[in-house]
Design brief:
Distance between the termini: 14 Å
Helix content: 55-70%
Number of domains: 1
CATH architecture: Up-down Bundle
Strand order of the largest sheet: 1-2
Largest sheet: 2 strands, antiparallel
Structural class: mainly alpha
Shape: elongated
CATH topology: Bromodomain-like
Number of strands: 2
Strand content: under 5%
Length: 167
């Protein structure tokens, strides 16, 4: 039978691994393969950064008896990640228009100098542009599935750790 301490440590390592893999994939796509992220792509990285910090903190400074609370919080963070990703998929598929500043727009041009400066700037990437797919599925769509799977795993971890805590 597994102990609560071992289960808690494994869960912390899962959080760290999920953050490293997700952020590593995103930064590899950006810096190695040259795919420019849009604003929503950048927003999708935030939950994984939070999860990575939580994972590192819990490895060293969290009592195993409190890890079920961490699992609940991780589940919520992964659900937020899935929500951001689903919103991005909706923008990519033109189900709705993004409220995020996703490319386009003339900005505040009040003079000829403002216009010339705006023409010199690289425009922001549109959130509706899909630069990469695998089997016709975008990275945002994969992130919905991965985030939901990690939320489910966190939920199952919460249930298992709660059994240990309150048994």
């Amino acid at each position: 039978m597994e102990s609560l301490g071992r289960l808690s440590r494994s869960f912390s390592l899962l959080l760290i691994a999920s953050a490293v893999i997700a952020l590593g994939t995103a930064y590899t796509a950006q810096y190695v393969f040259g795919y420019e992220p849009c604003v929503l792509c950048l927003y999708q990285r935030v939950p994984y950064a939070i999860i990575g910090v939580i994972g590192i903190v819990t490895v060293y400074w969290c009592a195993p008896e409190k890890m079920h609370l961490v699992a609940v919080f991780a589940c919520l963070v992964f659900l937020v990640s899935a929500g951001i990703s689903f919103y991005h998929v909706g923008v990519e598929q033109t189900w709705w228009v993004s409220v995020a500043p996703c490319g386009g727009g003339a900005g505040d041009i009040a003079s000829t100098q403002d216009l010339l400066a705006a023409l010199q700037e690289k425009p922001a990437k549109s959130c509706g542009d899909i630069e990469w797919t695998l089997f016709g599925i975008s990275m945002a769509t994969y992130n919905v599935a991965v985030s939901l799977a990690l939320a489910g795993t966190s939920f199952l971890g919460w249930r298992r750790m709660r059994e240990f805590t309150y048994a």
